[in-house]
Amino acid sequence: MPESLRSSRIIGTGHYVPTRVLTNFDLEKMVDTTDEWIVTRTGIRERRIAAENEACSDLSLAACKEAVAMAGLDPKDIDGIIIGTISGDMQFPATAAFVQDRLGAINAAALDLSAACSGFIYAVNMAHAMIVSGQMERVLVVGAEVLTKFVDWSDRSTCVLFGDAAGAALLEACPRGEGILATHMKSDGALAELLCLPGGGSRHPLTPNTFADRTRFIKMKGDGVFKWAVRAMVDATHTVLEQAGYSLSDVAVVIPHQANIRIIDAVAERLEIPRERVVVNLDRYGNTSSATIPVAYDEVVRAKKLKPGDLVLFTGFGGGFTWGSVLLKHAISL
Ligand code: UT7
Predict the structure, then answer these.
(1) Which residue puts its alpha carbon closest to atom 38 of ligand 1?
(2) Could you give the number of structural domains in the chain?
(3) Ligand 1 centre from 157 Cα, in Å?
(4) What's the whole-number average pLDDT of the chain?
(5) Is 334 within a domain?
(6) pLDDT tens, 235-273?
(7) Which of 94, 95, 244, 260 could form a disulfide with 181 if both were Cys (CB 3.0 to 4.6 A apart)?
(8) Above 60 in pLDDT, residue 1?
């Protein structure tokens, strides 16, 4: 079968974070923790918390509007909206359906994708594949989470980690060799219990018990996740570089999932990449799950730290387990 001559490139980015800031010092008053513990063990100093009336589609819509404006497109020209999220507005319909309506993307299909913190990387993979197949020309990809509504605020081992945010990227068809050069996704469902939210699905429907036993909140075995995270991101990074025939010295910036500064440091050390080429913003936002990578990319883009043709590498991991990477040629000129 002949190889497709098509690829896809990112032509617009955007992000949104809620206005309310929760610092480590605020958390000291809520659970038995300290700013010193959180900073040294995670690198996080503060995170954003969605307002009571703010849902995943509100954050997503704000990020999408910025991405569409940067691309200079009419929302009617968008063929699909894919949101990587595990904290959508409702069990159904998809959060993407609310965004499709409010954005006025009247010609777009809309779906959510569940890959936890790998949600954005998985969604970029899907959007890219749809464009390469010729099925779509432009797809809006979002990573958005409001996980602070799903954390157990009495569990100090998880509640200090997460924050709320949304990031968006608009992908458009382009010739092969430009834009996205390689993608990789993997999973290992045997590790599902290391990081999950057991209550509220069809296995453990919401009952008074799911409230009493606290299974309606995120559960995590942090040390197990930590070890896998490092291995997964290093492997996925090597895989996309090999696929595309590049080495790390060719890459302008690596944007890793922002879960823990010690994970990022360990990945940078194993990849032997200078720290100044690794993007970090988790001190300001904490772990925003599927939103970390698109938020960080948008910040780098808007700070004009990249020029067209620069190689950018996304790598991430999350519950499932899921993990993956994307290698692309930066295509935005501001
Ligand atoms: O997007 C993917 C999501 N998750 C992750 O990426 C998480 C990956 N894992 C991690 O980031 C780290 O494992 C954590 C930050 C979650 C924990 O760090 P750690 O260095 O692995 O600490 P630990 O779990 O081994 O706990 C060490 C101690 C324990 O006390 P004892 O048993 O030694 O007395 C904990 O109870 O630290 C205690 N502890 C805390 N102390 C103060 C746990 N959480 C806190 C806290 N403040 N917030």
Answers:
(1) 157
(2) 2
(3) 5
(4) 97
(5) no
(6) 999 999 999 999 999 999 999 999 999 999 999 999 999
(7) 244
(8) no
Q: Which contiguous run of DSSP H or E holds residue 264? A: helix 261-271
Atom 21 in ligand 1: which residue has the minimum CA distance? 223
Question: Both 221 and 187 in a single domain?
Answer: yes
Residues 77 and 211 in one domain: no
Q: What region does 160 belong to: left with phi over 0, alpha with psi -120 to 50, or beta?
A: alpha
pLDDT at 119 over 70: yes
pLDDT of residue 3: 59
pTM over 0.85: yes
The conformation of residue 178, written as its DSSP 8-state character, comes to B
Mark out the alpha helices in 76-219 (DSSP H runs).
Answer: 95-103, 119-132, 156-159, 208-212
CATH value at residue 191: 3.40.47.10
State the residue range of the domain holding 54.
Answer: 3-177
On the question of pLDDT at 2 being above 80, the answer is no
Catalytic residue from among 64, 117, 159, 174: 117
Instruction: pLDDT band for 24, please (50, 70, 90 cuts).
Output: very high
Cα–Cα distances (Å) from 13 to 49, 113, 320, in that order, read: 22, 19, 27
- Choosing from 177, 195, 228, the residue where a domain stops is 177
Could you tell me if 209 and 325 lie in one domain?
yes
Name which of 239, 230, 117 is nearest 183 in CA terms: 239
Identify whether 281 is a catalytic site residue: no
Let me know whether 75 and 200 are in one domain.
Answer: no
